[in-house]
Amino acid sequence: MGSIYTPSYGIGREGPDSLRRSPLRDFRFGFSVLGIRSRKELVEQCRAAERYGFDIVLAADHLGMPAPFPVLTAAADATTRLRVGTFVLNTALWNPHVLAREIATVDRLTGGRLEVGLGAGYVRWENEEAGIGWDRFTTRTDRLQATIDELSRLFGGQGYEQQRSLREMLDLPILAPLQSRGFGGLGPPLLVGGTGDTVLELAARQADIVSISGTHQIKGSPLGAVRLGTARETQERARFVRQAAGDRFPGMDLNTIVQLVLVTADRRAAAEKLVSTQLRTLTVDEALETPHLLIGTEDQIADQLHERREQYGFNYFTVQEPFMHALGPVVERLQG
Fold first, then answer.
1. Global pTM?
2. Percent of the chain predicted with pLDDT > 70
3. What is the CA radius of gyration of the chain?
4. How many CB atoms are closer than 10 A to CB 275?
5. Residue 118 vs residues 202, 233, 257: alpha-carbon distances, Å
6. Which of 17, 30, 67, 72 has the highest count of CB atoms within 10 angstroms of its CB?
7. Which of 252, 158, 161, 131 lies closest to 200, judged by CA?
8. Do 41 and 151 contact (CB within 8 A), yes or no?
9. Domains located in the chain, CATH noted
10. DSSP structural state of residue 188
């Protein structure tokens, strides 16, 4: 039997501006695989993350990037403790019946280590390249909800009636997830991520993990052009999730994506360079304050993670694979 995921809680100091007024959740750390050069390199990367103390390896769902479920199966095979998850699947690209088959298969092959991240999709050109129509955001959110509902129904069912005689003749098991935490107690833990009210409200009502992406559409720019959220904007989003979740909030993990990890002895000089070259929508002070960047010495970054857990309620931080080794020593310290 594999490990079954449940949120754990640690006791932490609460600052005067803390979003939470209850014990702080234990830290969780994940990194997202974006490319594969070789099986050997993926294995080494996952094992290094496990040694540092990361909790989960994640796979994105974008055209031109590796298929998520094979990556997760390989990552689980390479490690003994790491959980694996999708971050996040674009529901427009997946038929729910096919997706249910993938989820149940990988959950069983990984011994119950899978977490399922779902989203409404935000990259228009991918839909167009795949020959899938690009719908309004409300329609995409409705599809996300319908996918969750259909997956729950399939996970709780007794298999396809058309296969009953074959199953009985060959003594085949019904394909169903190993875990029973998410999807109404019928499947793996469910993560739903986004920034807008509609998706975050859906996540607060139904997900085990809510992810605040921290990116915002730039008004007047082509669809897909985004900017990084400020501390004030992210604080408001975190409060929105807490209010929408109500009594469910203490039982969930609150995730955010850290877009960059920069270990440096001079935080301000590093922020000034970033703002002048890459993050032109932020001021230097905003770059230093946003929870979606980690800049400073390892000690300072550790302090930032503690502060952001207290201030926003974030306990689960995800980084992209190029920054896994940069954050690793800090994770080792916090998890050790």
1. 0.91
2. 91
3. 20
4. 18
5. 11, 23, 15
6. 72
7. 252
8. no
9. 28-257+313-335 (3.20.20.30)
10. S
The structure tokens listed for 291 are 């929870």
In this predicted structure, what is the pLDDT of residue 328? Answer: 98
Report yes or no: 309 and 24 within 8 Å, Cβ to Cβ.
Answer: yes
**């800090």: which residue's tokens?**
330
The total number of residues shown for the chain amounts to 336
Place of tokens 């085990």: 208
Number of helices (H) and strands (E) in the chain: give both, helices first: 13, 13
* Average pLDDT score over residue span 279-304: 97
Say which range, 160-174, 203-217, 284-298, 307-321, has the weakest mean pLDDT: 203-217
**For 272-298, what is the mean pLDDT?**
96
Q: What is the pLDDT of residue 15?
A: 37
Distance, first Cα to last Cα, the chain: 26
Q: Is the dihedral of CA 275, 214, 256, 238 positive or negative?
A: positive
Question: What pLDDT does 148 receive?
Answer: 98
Q: Please, are residues 63 and 100 in contact by the beta-carbon 8 Å criterion? A: no
